[in-house]
Write a structure and sequence with these properties.
Helix content is 9%, strand content 48%. It is mainly beta.
């Protein structure tokens, strides 16, 4: 296996999601709710599906209501698998 093949085989694009902070009570952790719109397979109606992600916030700068962009990362604790990329919009 050549060197180029190993670096290409190792490439793994990490998932990036946008959501709203619903909880910031823990130290260096925030809970972000992401909402996806998917089309129902049988009825073809648009359905909203949401999921809560535990996000690592090193500087404790997130507040409830902020819109944020998060990126998948290695496991940081029992539930934390995401880290903060950027704050898109502050809560009003």
């Amino acid at each position: 296996m050549a060197e180029n093949e190993t670096t290409e085989a190792r490439f793994n694009a990490r998932k990036i999601r946008e959501g709203v902070v619903v909880s910031d009570g823990s130290d260096k952790t925030a809970v972000v709710k992401i909402t996806d719109r998917v089309r129902h397979r049988r009825y073809s109606k648009t359905v909203q599906r949401s999921k809560k992600l535990h996000v690592h916030d090193e500087a404790n700068e997130l507040k409830t209501g902020d819109r944020v962009r998060v990126q998948e990362t290695r496991p940081l604790s029992k539930l934390k698998r995401w880290r903060l990329l950027e704050i898109l919009e502050r809560a009003k």
